[in-house]
Amino acid sequence: MAFIATSLARIKPSPTIAVTQKAAELKAAGRDVIGLGAGEPDFPTPDNIKAAGIRAIEGNDTKYTAVDGTPALKKAVCLKFKRENGLDYTPDQVHIGSGGKQVIFNAMIATLDPGDEVIIPAPYWVSYPDIVLLAGGHPVFIETTLESGFKVTAAQLEAAISPKTKWIMLNSPSNPTGAAYSYDDLKPLTDVLVRHPHVWVMTDDMYEHIVYDDFKFVTPAQIEPALYARTLTVNGVSKAYSMTGWRIGYAAGDAALIKAMAKVQSQSTSNPCSISQAAAVEALTGPQDFIPVRSDRFKERRDLVVSMLNQATGLKCPRPEGAFYVYPSCAGLIGKKTPDGKVIATDGDFVTYLLESEGVAVVQGAAFGLSPYFRISYATSDEALKEACTRIQRACAALV
């Protein structure tokens, strides 16, 4: 009898983590590898935030906290939502978890019964479907296109909703595409959702502050007050504040849902790290002026990568509105052969070819539910990006 639960057969390890680990292994073995798979900023955590963590340690702020977050951090989150999004929440409507992933996991465990459906636009962040499956739900995918800017249309959303639908997950700006929904993009979707009161909205706004070209970020609860009571707005400090390792995510929504999520967390990790929570308070309430400066650096990198990839044979790279990813199409390379005669039949074949021939590690589009594409993270140095894109151009040119 197999000891491991059969339910685990439905899910897979994170492919983005696998790519990063593979690149690290090759580097350790002496290979010249440029890793473009990691989804985290290369900038350090700002000094004032680190200092807040140090003060917490020195002040012996190292005990258990309330299960779903300290009063100080919940207050800071409420202030953030009011200041930046015009949304009013009270502390009993706020949940703090050990990263955005745990917050989403808690919400799905707390709400999904077997057979409940969750609508997930593709391409999607790799963890969404597996979290839904672990919670006993059924992912329903809506495929977007490069031509639509990788955004769901109102007609697609309407067609995907069924009596079993419990949630729709929206991620803007998106991982993996960088696509961001404007007010005009979201309003038709919120109009559809108003007509279906049994459907709740989970919006993952983790990349809210990494937007370009004067893009104005909006979130569904801002656009349609009728959705406020059934929207869970998820965010965190990982991306904007370069705090991926501190593991703090947060969400705001209906108080009964938040209470249920705390119940789940009380029987798993219990409270997030007390030191990280203290640092997150400083992140949300301290100086914010470094954020647009760092976004400007990401914009320069985006422009560099988009320009160079669009000069590569067979690639088509759209210009994203936010985040720090590009999601180029490699459709023009499918069916071609490598110099040693291997056929590029899938985007997985292409990324394997890039790694083996040129030492560039990227993530295949199949991991995000839409092929034939691949994801590049440009959260690394200009020099590494220039060299990586030069290698990609060379690899594409070598295919016949």
TrEMBL record:
Give the organism's phylogenetic lineage.
Bacteria, Pseudomonadati, Pseudomonadota, Alphaproteobacteria, Acetobacterales
Check the record and name the PANTHER family matching this protein: ASPARTATE AMINOTRANSFERASE
Which BP terms from GO are recorded? amino acid metabolic process
* This protein's record includes keyword Membrane: no
Q: Name the UniProt key words of this record, in alphabetical order.
A: Aminotransferase, Pyridoxal phosphate, Transferase
Q: GO MF terms on file?
A: L-aspartate:2-oxoglutarate aminotransferase activity; pyridoxal phosphate binding
Q: Identify its protein family.
A: Belongs to the class-I pyridoxal-phosphate-dependent aminotransferase family.
Quaternary data: Homodimer.
Q: Where do the Aminotransferase class I/classII large domain residues begin and end? A: 32-392
Protein name per the record: Aminotransferase
Taxonomically, the superkingdom here is: Bacteria
Q: EC number(s) of the enzyme?
A: 2.6.1.-
InterPro entries in the record, alphabetically? Aminotransferase_I/II_large (IPR004839), AspAT/PAT-like (IPR050596), NHTrfase_class1_PyrdxlP-BS (IPR004838), PyrdxlP-dep_Trfase (IPR015424), PyrdxlP-dep_Trfase_major (IPR015421), PyrdxlP-dep_Trfase_small (IPR015422)
Asked if the keyword Transferase belongs to this entry, the reply reads yes
Tell me any Pfam family this protein matches. Answer: Aminotran_1_2
Cofactors, names only: pyridoxal 5'-phosphate
Question: What reactions does this protein catalyze?
Answer: L-aspartate + 2-oxoglutarate = oxaloacetate + L-glutamate
